[in-house]
Amino acid sequence: MIEKKHKRLELLDLPAEYSNLDQTLNSAFKILEDASKNRRSLFHTPTLSTFDGNRVSIRTMVLREFDPDKRLIRFHTDYRSIKIQQLKKDSHGAVHGYDPSLKIQIRLDGKINLHHKDEITKGSWELSKDMSKECYFVGGPPGSKIDDPTEYEPSTFNLKTFNGFDNFCVIVFEIESMEFLYLKKSGHRRAIHNWSTGEHQASWLIP
Ligand SMILES: Cc1cc2nc3c(=O)[nH]c(=O)nc-3n(C[C@H](O)[C@H](O)[C@H](O)COP(=O)(O)O)c2cc1C
Predict the structure, then answer these.
(1) Are 172 and 70 in contact (CB under 8 A)?
(2) pLDDT tens-digit readout, 1-24
(3) Which residue in 28, 23, 119 sits closest to 73, CA to CA?
(4) Which atom number of ligand 1 is nearest to the Cα of residue 64?
(5) Distance, CA 174 to ligand 1 centroid (Å)?
(6) Which residues in 90-162 belong to E strands, given as ranges?
(7) pTM of full prediction above 0.90
(8) Domains (ranges, CATH) in the chain?
């Protein structure tokens, strides 16, 4: 087990000890880059939380792309889903992931831009597999109450009458701050990186 944990650190080329803030940023970004391509990474399915001014909601989402230079994360969803209604009220969001094999938690705070029936959505739709596209052919808003769940299985979809693309939405999450937490017996390390002023600011925090 211990060997497996070290392997994962080595695979991602992450340090076993953290002595400067740049290391924490590099590790977090390496993890997120890996997460966008590696289905086995626990950060491949982080939690996205939204707030509608009244309530907080959280859900698991597939991390489709990470752009470290622009600090953008791309998610896909159904434009009719509840999260979209919430995001239209408040565009702030938070993303969270933890991998016990790395002993690293990443918390992201940021703003969300929604894309629907535009060039960005077209590009992402074309790159999506048929199996992923099927989700958007469901004949009703996700979260609606139904009597019979078997009527909403992919085999029942009428692909000719519905256009899945019309329901497809790209969520672009722009990272404004990133909190890194590394739990290690010999000394925990917690760091915050913030870009909300336009400049990159970083600091250690009490774990
Ligand atoms: C492993 C896993 C991956 C998921 N990926 C997505 C995803 O990429 N996009 C999405 O909209 N929902 C995804 N879901 C479903 C969401 O967690 C959630 O149930 C759904 O989007 C409805 O959320 P809402 O009612 O807050 O809009 C995933 C769920 C799991 C368990």
Answers:
(1) no
(2) 555 556 777 888 899 999 999 999
(3) 28
(4) 8
(5) 19
(6) 92-99, 104-116
(7) yes
(8) 2-75+82-116+170-205 (2.30.110.10)
